[in-house]
Automatic annotation (TrEMBL):
Pfam families, sorted: CENP-B_N
InterPro entries reported in the protein's UniProt record: Homeodomain-like_sf (IPR009057), HTH_Psq (IPR007889)
Protein name per the record: HTH psq-type domain-containing protein
Bias kind Basic and acidic residues: ranges: 55-68
Localization: Nucleus
GO cellular component, one term: nucleus
Domain of life: Eukaryota
């Protein structure tokens, strides 16, 4: 979400890529999928910054047991 906010603030792809240590194509993909990302963050139970993928566990009870 920080990257999306920065993109709305007219940051360049190159500056964001170097700031976050990712490629410019990753920043472009984030911008291209901004609606999907925003929807996921608004519906997830753990909030932004806790997950690294947009996929939810197929069997949440097993995922929770593995975490414990």
């Amino acid at each position: 979400m920080d990257i999306l906010d920065s993109l709305n603030g007219n940051e360049t792809f190159s500056s964001l890529a170097s700031e976050y240590g990712v490629g410019r194509s990753t920043i472009y993909d984030i911008k291209r999928n901004h609606e999907k990302i925003k929807k996921f963050v608004s519906t997830t139970d753990c909030g932004p910054g806790k997950r690294q993928t947009l996929k939810k566990a197929e069997h949440p009870e097993v995922a929770e047991a593995l975490k414990k």
